[in-house]
Design goal:
- The protein is mainly α and 256 residues long.
- The chain has a single domain, classed as Tetracycline Repressor, domain 2, CATH 1.10.357.140.
- Helix 3 packs antiparallel against helix 4.
- The radius of gyration is 19 Å and the shape is globular.
Length: 256
């Protein structure tokens, strides 16, 4: 939206906002799952589940983080961004409950994680372009892919307590479906590169991301908890690969 150099004020607002809303999402997720987490090996020792933190404290923290983020939007951005912020709040609050009603909570998580993209674009450009929604789509698909690895870690426990996920929906086709999602991520990011006129360094970043996606499939080849969790965690390097490629592209070819 800014050709590589965002407004410093927007950069600060959205950097802080992403951290605070991600924290708020984690808090409300743990609150929603506090009675279920005791039955899941990975989450049975969470503070809300064990009683080290009380439910009202978690709710107060959630609303405090949301209020602080909302005030930054009100004070330092524009009207379009303000309107979009309500969608982000709805997604952050409703996502944790989706696993009770649909096998696609990973898509809702992707939308919640990705909503900052159109918001930041609107704050910078004052409008929303097709590129903004392509980036949003790529991030939703990527989140659904890596969070399915995460859901595979808990699949046995989730089946026992009635929690839904894409890992359960996909069943034995889980790695195939993740691979399809990963391929779609690359295709959408190629469209982004084409529309934005990005060059060699950006596309090298996509090559690196593709190689890492193949590595993730290798890590999860036995569908064991440790391998799936490692595949999930390794996605930070996939994101870094694209960031590094884009950063170098805009640094070396600033006219892009």
């Amino acid at each position: 939206a800014a050709g590589g150099l965002p407004d410093p004020g927007n950069f600060v607002v959205f950097t802080l906002g992403v951290f605070m809303m991600r924290a708020a999402g984690c808090v409300i997720n743990d609150f929603a799952d506090r009675k279920l987490d005791r039955y899941v090996k990975r989450t049975k020792d969470r503070p809300l589940t064990t009683g080290r933190i009380r439910a009202w404290e978690a709710v107060a923290l959630f609303f405090g983080l949301c209020l602080a983020s909302f005030l930054m939007v009100v004070l330092f951005t524009n009207t379009l961004t303000l309107y979009l912020s309500f969608g982000g709040l709805v997604l952050a609050f409703t996502y944790p409950f989706m696993k009770r009603y649909t096998h696609l909570p990973q898509l809702f998580l992707g939308a919640a994680f990705s909503w900052a993209i159109p918001m930041a674009w609107a704050a910078q450009a004052g409008e929303l372009s097709q590129l903004a929604w392509l980036l949003f789509t790529a991030n939703v698909l990527w989140t659904a892919a890596y969070d399915t690895f995460y859901a595979m870690v808990d699949r046995d426990d989730d089946l026992k307590i009635g929690i839904k996920s894409t890992a359960i929906l996909f069943g034995d086709a889980d790695r195939l479906m993740i691979g399809i999602l990963q391929a779609m991520v690359i295709l959408v990011l190629l469209l982004v590169g084409h529309q934005a006129g990005l060059g060699t360094f950006y596309h090298l970043g996509l090559v690196a991301m593709t190689c890492l996606f193949v590595y993730h499939q290798h890590l999860a080849r036995y569908r064991d908890r440790d391998g799936c969790f490692r595949a999930f965690l390794n996605n930070n390097w996939a994101g870094f690969a694209v960031f590094a490629g884009l950063f170098l592209e805009l640094l070396i070819n600033p006219a892009t």
